[in-house]
Amino acid sequence: MLSKKGGSQMTRQAFIIARREFLERVRNKWFAIVTILGPIGMVAAIVLPAYLSVRSVKEGFHVQVVDQSERDVADMMDIELDARGVAFKLERVPPQTDVAILEGRIRDEKIDGYLIFPKDVLSGGKVMYRGDNATNMLVTKGLSSLVDFAVFRTRGKDMGLGEIQIASLFQKVEFESKQTTGQGEATSGTASFVVGYAVMFVLYIAILLYGVAVLRSVIQEKNNRVVEIMVSSVRPISLMLGKVVGVGCVGLLQLTLWGLMAAIIVGFREEVLGLFGIPGAGAFELPHLGGADFAIILVYFFLGYFFYAALYAAIGAMVNSEQEAQQAQTPVMLMLIIPVLCVQIVAGDPRGGVAEVLTQIPFASPVLMPMRFLLDAVSTAEILASIGILLASLLGAVLLAAKVYRVGILSYGKKPSFREVWSWIRNS
């Protein structure tokens, strides 16, 4: 056990190292560049899709239509050329037009695609579309809507229905889907998922980047033999904690700045779109993020970062080069990647048993619990339990890493085996 004086000295040494690591990175021009690029990327994420969408609608899609039916079903498509917000330029071509000719027109970029109505379209025949934009869901859904309208209108006329009756039968039903657990105001389900997913992704990237930064810093100082001078006056555990805290504070500062800028950009997204001449009315509805939301995000980032950074510091002390580190860090990276692969499980059923378990596991909770919290699907007791488990796991990871770091930081030569690492832990 450390004495009160020893603990105070370790804390002071760790603080000095942390301040050095923090200032060294914050004063680096790349910190300023990356911090500025973050908000620029956020603006681009809002403006670019909207701009491309507006441009596509204005230009429209040139589609040639081959109607092999005997009822001229395709003529009924002219009633509704703008479907689901996508403009189409439909051009009828002779029924006997060869598919090879149509494929050639797509290849020569004369058309975007072609649509073929088979002879038995009214009795269930499959309408076929081929085009260079078939991966665009708006295009395929828009064309499907036009085809449905044409077929239903033709069938309606065969049954003696008038235009008004046909239109009333085909009238779309307004459908609204919102996310709620009965504890707060309902919000758009899609918007809640997008915000939750964005937060999960940012936390994953931030924890990974700054964890790897600790790993590289340890390897660099070990290879330069700088660490031999430092441990002569600073305890190894103070050196490790100072490095982890210093780099973590840089990440926390950058994440906080990005969060503030994101809140401002999202809050004024209509005005931002207006600056680029893009209509902002009816912009994508986003759920409100309050102080508690940002607090949970930052708490889980800091705890998750400390958990993974301690493991990365231990790996850095074990290896002698970045090539060795790339292999040694694989288990830790898998611990971080697996929760990301489970994001759809949490988003699809945020109050389900699997989601509850995943958000209590310490290596998964830092990236999944904030998302589940933003979906309003977690109780205060679950949050406290998750934080408690993560804190206990963090302390265990730090103590384990400190034992490995203490011996490994001064070990050179071949990479130690698992048996040697275990002896470091047991004998430290």
Rg of Cα set: 30 Å
Which strand-content bin applies to the residues? 5-15%
Question: How many domains make up the coordinates?
Answer: 2
The coarse overall form would be: elongated
Mean pLDDT: 78
Helical residue percent? Answer: 55-70%
What are the secondary-structure elements, in order, as H or E? Answer: HHEEEHEEHHEEHHHHHHHHHHHH
List low-pLDDT spans. none
Distance between the termini: 13 Å
Class by alpha and beta content: alpha/beta
The total of helices stands at 17
Largest sheet: 5 strands, mixed
Q: Give me the count of strands.
A: 7
Largest sheet, order of strands side by side?
Answer: 2-3-1-4-5
Jot down its keywords.
alpha/beta; 2 domains; 65% helix; D-Maltodextrin-Binding Protein, domain 2; 428 residues; 5-stranded mixed sheet; 17 helices
General description of the model:
The protein has about 425 residues and is α/β, with parallel strands linked by helices. It has two domains: about 10-50 and about 185-425, no CATH class; about 60-170, D-Maltodextrin-Binding Protein, domain 2 (3-Layer(aba) Sandwich). It has 17 helices and seven strands. A five-stranded mixed β-sheet has the order 2-3-1-4-5. A two-stranded antiparallel ribbon has the order 6-7.
What topology does this entry show?
Elements: H1 4-26, H2 29-59, E1 61-67, E2 82-83, E3 86-93, H3 99-107, E4 113-117, E5 128-131, H4 137-158, H5 163-170, E6 178-179, E7 187-188, H6 189-223, H7 226-230, H8 236-267, H9 269-275, H10 291-318, H11 322-328, H12 330-341, H13 343-348, H14 353-358, H15 365-374, H16 380-408, H17 418-427
Parallel strand pairs: 1-3, 1-4
Antiparallel strand pairs: 2-3, 4-5, 6-7
Helix pairs in contact: 1-8, 2-8, 4-5, 6-8, 6-10, 6-12, 6-15, 8-10, 8-16, 10-15, 10-16, 16-17
